[in-house]
Amino acid sequence: MNTTTTTTEQQTTSTNTTPTSITATLSHWILTRHSTRKFLKSPIPPLNLIRTSLQLAQHSPSNSNIQPWRLTIVHGKALTRLTTALVSAASKETPQIPPLPKKFAHYRRNLGALVYGAPGYGLAHDDLEGRKRAVLKNYEFFDAPIGIVVCMDRSLGAADSLSVGMFLQSFLLALAERGVQSCVEVSIAGYPEIVRRELGIEGEMEVLCGVAVGWEDG
């Protein structure tokens, strides 16, 4: 199923929940949400959980309340076609993503040690083939049964990207609250034309990232 969400202005509603319980609950999900890189291919999380999480996230703030986020949700055969095309491209072509400035490079090295080293995939530093296969898992959405592509109209600016980021954080926390795990993937933005072609996304939409969604394996 390919679904592009559209948004309307949301009105906030008050609740009788006490500030203490709100803080405890919010802190819990902020601290326990994590990037999952090992998903169960089945069963697929009920789509009503995804919809509810999206509806909650739409209450996020945005510049002039334009709510610039546009999402395409894929699973089943559509997701298989997308991942097959992305893996094929990533195996042959360099992604269209600018390199990190040197002053930020140590963050990527530290993450790489966690993801590919003993705490994660357990790959030796010189296991180049193993690391290459692990990198390609990004383009397979880590075997998650649901893939989401996050876009924004390319005519918008940096402030609107912040709005998308706030929406995305709200969405991820809402998923985590329902026991559904996720992983944000900037990697797929490196092949925007393939993503647009496979999902029928309009050319004026900039592909910002993907999100793998599903039940965590283990």
Secondary structure layout plus pairing:
Layout: E1 3-4, H1 19-32, H2 47-57, E2 70-75, H3 77-90, H4 105-116, H5 128-136, E3 146-153, H6 158-177, E4 181-185, H7 192-199, E5 205-214
Antiparallel strand pairs: 1-2, 2-3, 3-5, 4-5
Helix pairs in contact: 2-6, 3-7
What can you tell me about this protein's structure?
This protein is α+β, with helices and mostly antiparallel strands and 218 residues long. It is built from seven helices and five strands; from the N terminus they run βααβαααβαβαβ. It has helices at residues 19-32, 47-57, 77-90, 105-116, 128-136, 158-177, 192-199; strands spanning 3-4, 70-75, 146-153, 181-185, 205-214. The protein has a five-stranded antiparallel beta sheet with strand order 1-2-3-5-4, with helices on both faces. Helix 3 runs antiparallel to helix 7 (192-199). The radius of gyration is 18 Å and the shape is globular. It starts with a strand and ends with a strand. Mean pLDDT is 90; it is low at 1-15. Pfam families: Nitroreductase. Keywords: Flavoprotein, FMN, Oxidoreductase. Its cofactor is FMN. This is Nitroreductase domain-containing protein. Residues 30-215 form the Nitroreductase domain.
